[in-house]
Give the backbone structure.
Amino acid sequence: MKYLNSNDHLFLIMDKGYFPYGKKSKEFLLKRSLYLCDYLIKKGVDEIILACNTLSIVALPFLKLFYNNIRGVFEELIPYINSNSLIISSLTTKNALKEILPNKIINGNKLIYKIENNIDITNDLKILNQIAKNYSNIIFACTHFINIDYPFNKPIYKNMNKHNNL
């Protein structure tokens, strides 16, 4: 990953009015992300990193038509994905990546819903910990997962056919 030097300033901008993006239409995501990027550029931002994987997957190619100083967080994750990886993401991200990474992505919408509604996820994490035993890493590919206290001895992945809808 590219690290900031001591003279750089990093700001995290959250779109509280329209977040979460996982269930929004592609048209909405393109319009909203174009509006937000235009706003940030007008404010003098040097570089934009889309922290939302849904935007990184769905809107980034479109946004690169207009901006040279934009990248997505998913681009930063690609070097860490290998044949023994699992990605837990929103359904929108899963659908966008299904041709590139078939059978490597779990739909995390139920987990996302629980996080959004402050519902206990302890049992979900226990299930994920069991799935993890035979695999090298797990990528929690959604900003909803930032504050999870991960109980894993090893990262996650087992049988996508049995566990594809957490």
Strands lie at 48-50, 70-72, 85-89, 105-107, 137-141. The two ends are 29 Å apart (CA to CA). The domain at 1-75 is CATH 3.40.50.1860 (Rossmann fold). Residues 153-166 have pLDDT under 50 and may be disordered.
